[in-house]
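Key idea: predict the complex, not the pieces.
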Amino acid sequence: MVSSSTDKILLSADGVPLKKSLNRSLRQQKIRALLLISPLLIFIIVAFIMPIISMLSRSVENDLVSQTLPETVQALQSWDALSGQLPEESVYAAFAIDIKNAAKAKVHTKVGLRLNYEKSGIASLFKKTARKAKKWDIETDGPFKEKLIDVHDGWSSIEVWQTIKTHSPAYTSGYFLNAVDMRKTAQGAEFQPDDKTILIKLFKRTFVMSLVITFSCILLGYPVAWLLANLPMRQANFLMILVLLPFWTSLLVRTSAWKVMLQQQGVINDVLVQLSLVADDARLIMINNETGTIVAMTHILLPFMILPMYSVMQTIPPSYLRAAKSLGATNWTAFWRVYFPQSVPGIGAGSILVFILAIGYYITPEIVGGTKGVFISNRIAYHILKSLNWGLAAALGTILLVAVLVLYWTYDKIVGIDNVKLGG
Amino acid sequence: MNFTKTILTTASAALISGAAFAGSHMSMEMTIVSWGGAYSNSQLKAYHEPYSANTGVTILNDDSSSTAVAQLRAMNEAKNITWDVVDVEAAPAMQLCDEGLAIEIDPDTMLAPAPDGTPASEDFGDMLVSECFIPQIVYSTTFGYRTDLVGDTAPSSVCDVFNTAAYPGKRSLFSVPINTMEWALLCDGVAKADIYDTLETEAGQDRALAKLDTIKDDVIWVSSGSDTPQLLADGEVIMGATYNGRLFSLIEEQKQPVAMIWDGQVMDLDGWIIPAGLSAERQARALDYIMFATDTQRLADQAKYISYGPARASSAPLVGKHADLGIDMAPHMPTAPENLSRAFLMNYDFWADYRDDLDAKFQAWLAK
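Result:
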């Protein structure tokens, strides 16, 4: 019995069961394939995915306060932020220890700056206090309540202590609240005063203008793509070079060229004035506003719309149109009922590309957008590079990323991502 | 498998030998960060070229000064400082110093004394605003105007910027609250001494924005120092704010019909810092460079190429003629007594506290 069952198992030439041997060689193949792509995989993980994750995690991380002021954060736990009373001497004493240590380690301005995002004035309050506190002897120099208030009357402000307490947990929702024009206070989340709300407006503007840019690209790009797909080879190639030409020119040069074209003393206005279409003292304002951004970005993103459309249109056999016409359809009906539906996947692919590129655009709005045509990414750049509020920048970036993913998902639900074609 | 192994070994061997090669040559090469353009060029001519000629050190330029604080912070987090000497303005220098991202420099032992033996601390005097900062130049943010587009009476006061009745036309301003809000209050009748006290209050901030409301439709808001000279040259604006060196080059080098207003201009400093966390070799090189590049003659030399005032008192008498144009540079310096008389001094501490808050307010106002 035993020998007959082993007879049934197929053996390879070296006597190992075939199944096992096959599995082994498959596994080896997989490992080899993995090794082949591993440089790219490691590169993407190290240079792309990990930085993004670490940047995004900054939008909730807030351990700076509790790390720099550990004693104070501990002592403040027993203080009721809404009591309307200043904290006890023990809190002041704890703060004196913390600020002295922080000043020695030169981390006091960093935490001061962090809290200054929440309440203006804390940066210099910490700076001035630290300068004095460096010389204090914690054992003998107490009590510290009067001493601190003496150094700076900011220490007699309940608001300052509320700010420290509110922003002491190691993880915070504060940055996300800031990103939607709200703020975290001792009383809970509340809206920013009207004269400081800007981010929601910028998010809305970014989305609306990106949609406008996408639609302008469709309108301008569709006829060009159609020509590319239907002209004889020679002309089509020439046209293709014209479409690709912008790709070979620096982005900054193209954007600056629009400045020369659109400004009030620029080419277009000069021509209009010369043709007496516009009075010399009423030259059109077409730059440093929304118009400038829409025009320049439509031009820059147009190839991203034309190329997917073209590659889809190329696959539509011209005989379909001829067939439609021979069956009695007018030119319009033939186009609208037969040709257009087949080109929709190209429009979809182009729109996704253009829209996603547009909402993250930074340099073109910065140059031609003035104050009314800038996007949320310009604000992100400001917080990364200038105000150094990386937490807020990360929160804004996360919201933008999530918004794009949601849109992509909706698009998939409505149109179906399988219907999007980049070619063939 | 063997194949992959070989590749990996070769690659790592190449990496290691590359690092060793760089290590042994480190101190003969340094990266200096500055602003680019005409300013970097003036430093190249006045400091880098003579220093390289003397020592054989290769100097690499990086035009990243406008984002220096953010980048130094990131480098510090990554524990990999790639810059040796960085050119920054006074306010970021103070911030870098407070955060421990720049090393402290003792002017009397680490900087050259004046030719007559005056120690550097006295020679620089009040310009030493931070322990880590060695000032190079004094610059001003001021207004230039088109002489052919402003009518018969040329503007002479910073408040003419707010006078759209006498000077109709567009003007350009930086789209940041710094300087802009001070000018607005100054021209709304607040005394120079009270400006920052006023700006600390909500009412004062609203007052500044209300004043700016009166010219909002006539302003082109710009973000970089090169914008205003371009707008002036194109005739897009009749007057605009930028750095005095940019205006000098527009007027004297490019011969545009532009003139400058020396009134209410905001004075600021620009200078060197050395990042903390450099290897001993590199730090020694950076200190050696600083000692050379901030001596009396070198600071005076820089003024041959760009119209910014040297930060040392002893350099002022040595300021000569422009290297190419041959015109006297002394009257074009922001530190020249007749230019200095109506200047305005920026309060660094105020802006360290209020920049984020006022910027949010200012941007919200701009977007309205």
